[in-house]
């Protein structure tokens, strides 16, 4: 297979690709010359698709036509409506992956033969399969899916492979939080445990602060944004910028002219102390996975030699402080937090293709969840159902295959329904159901005298296969879990491919101009007075020269507009 092999970090907020150059991972720039591509999709008024920075900029001005943070819904049946189209999370992710692939191929000057794609360690089976579907829909050949903190560990381990140490990776991205405990010994990176929360990330910190500010606007200033989708989108965008400023400053100012139905000019100041007080419940949620990961690895916080922060949200001072107080040491930032996972994916890609520069590295991984089935027990004359019976425990080194034997409950029983779950609770109702399958044609025997051996095989991609063997007949069936919630059928995949093929995209060469205008339009809404007039003139100038198709004049107008945007953001 000709072409390069790359690593892709498909993130909640940003996505990026990287490859090995001279034995070192290097992030690949996109069509705008930027390394981070926003995981955003928008449909403009002409029905054309925008992906990346241009789409992200439209979130404040056209929220009803823009999708963000859809990675959190991978593996579910949720549908996002953009204009007159309805798109599943897999489709939206496929559009982002397709853009990252096209940009990487244009920058590298050759096609991508294969990719290693990352997912949160705490992504379940359905979300992992949905990620694989998205890769397929994007035209990417992906044989290996790797956990994000494992990828970060690889990136870190490349430079630390001659040390002997225990480390913890805290990976707080836009939508998920993962904790991984690992040991590095002579180039072998052994993942000892993983834990996390698939529903907490940097986006939640923004949402919590935005909700607080919305209440403040209503109660103190009489500006009601309920039902005002565009007004809420503007507030959230301003809150996102506020959160970023608070990583380096003690307070941040929000200025929102003409907000709400009342068209009020709003100015608010948020202090770091005020924000961190609001975020305290989210910070407490981060402590649980840290304790669980350390417990599974049989370690105390004092046993850890280094703490590595990964993910853009770890820039927040409160997260740094949490790491420092928990482990009694300052966390490391040897790698760019936004790029570390992509670096590791590139290293895994290099390992896969046999790159000599990383040949001495070896990495193992573990199952982040316990996997099992629903079982029943007889207690006296009562039958208790819905008990979670583990088959493959969390922390098991992958790839792994584990089996457990189950017996019939009723006389003459000829079938057994196997309901597959993942989770850590004793009752199935508190865990996540992955699917179900039925073992049929059991010989009719008295209760308890017929048994089925249930085997779980869990591969390095975190994909589960289930086999069942009827012990009395020695007949073994290779059974596949039936389509669960969020799982695409073959017919759906075919239909989505057909639908994606009909979508109209902005020409690649036009994206810098489209992105500049989208960013300018979003900022124009927020400005007043002379600054607004200056920006409006620059927007008009670029729109005018676009009609001339004069490349030199277009580039000059775009540079002038981008220069204004940069000046106003600094101000």
Q: How is this fold's topology laid out?
A:
Layout: E1 4-10, E2 14-21, E3 24-27, E4 37-38, E5 40-43, E6 48-51, H1 53-57, E7 66-68, E8 80-82, E9 85-87, H2 89-108, E10 112-119, H3 125-137, E11 144-147, H4 148-160, E12 165-172, E13 177-185, E14 188-197, H5 202-221, H6 229-245, E15 251-259, E16 264-271, H7 272-296, E17 306-310, H8 317-327, H9 340-352, E18 362-366, E19 371-379, E20 382-392, E21 397-398, E22 400-407, E23 416-422, E24 432-439, E25 451-458, E26 464-470, E27 475-479, H10 490-502, E28 504-505, H11 511-524, H12 529-546, H13 551-570
Parallel strand pairs: 1-10, 6-28, 10-11, 12-17, 14-18
Antiparallel strand pairs: 1-2, 2-3, 2-4, 5-6, 5-7, 8-9, 12-13, 13-14, 15-16, 18-21, 19-20, 19-23, 22-25, 23-24, 25-26, 26-27
